[in-house]
Design brief:
With about 190 residues, the chain is an alpha/beta fold. It is about 25% helix and about 30% strand. The chain is built from five helices and ten strands; from the N terminus they run ββαβααββαβαββββ. The chain has an eight-stranded mixed beta sheet with strand order 5-4-3-6-1-7-10-9, sandwiched between helices. Helix 1 packs parallel to helix 3.
């Protein structure tokens, strides 16, 4: 059975989205981090998105065609394009990427069936959708890319009111100050 992975860049104080501004770290130009993420998620077959995260990630549908796109951007774009995408939204009428479908309501049992029937891992991206998957006991692995910024508020990486017992599997610091922490559900 495939694993469901939750991964986000996260502030030092635990926010996946800052209340004001960004998380204070520019991932877009960091080749070391891009290469690491491409390798880490190379076998992902399906991305599960909420509407806002999909709107952010759909950039990768055409990123490989940008005239100045460096090889690491082209590589990740092609990986993203090759995967299936499911977007949960009550307002989105159509998608602007291939291999993408819209779902109107989050159904934990449907995600369980998707995991059980998949030969490749899945990711859930965005703190709101991930909170639903975490509460349903669907998330197997957590990948936090921890910045050195404290933002003081926003949307938390982990949902409030949840207790999770996790095992640290791996950690990796990057030259730019980012720290990758990989946890697995016990």
């Amino acid at each position: 059975m495939a694993k469901l992975i939750y991964s986000m860049i996260t502030s030092l104080d635990g926010y996946a989205e800052a209340a004001e501004g960004d998380l204070g770290w520019g991932a877009a130009d960091d080749e070391e981090v891009h290469d690491y993420i491409s390798d880490l998620f190379r076998d992902v077959g399906t991305y599960l998105y909420g509407r806002r995260m999909y709107d952010t990630m759909v950039f990768w549908e055409t990123a490989d065609a940008l005239p100045e796109a460096p090889p690491f951007v082209v590589q990740y774009a092609r990986q993203w394009q090759a995967a299936d995408k499911v977007v949960w939204s009550t307002t989105l009428d159509q998608v602007s990427s291939g291999r993408t479908r819209i779902e109107r309501a989050f159904d934990p049992e449907a995600v369980r069936r998707l995991k059980a029937g998949s030969d490749h891992d899945l990711t859930v991206d965005g703190p709101t959708l991930a909170a639903q998957a975490i509460r349903a006991g669907l998330v197997d692995d957590y990948h936090l890319f921890l910045t050195s910024t404290v933002v003081g508020g926003g949307k938390r990486f982990f949902p409030d009111g949840m207790r999770l017992d996790l095992e640290l599997v791996e950690q990796r610091p990057f030259a730019g100050g980012l720290l990758h922490l990989h946890y697995r559900t016990r």
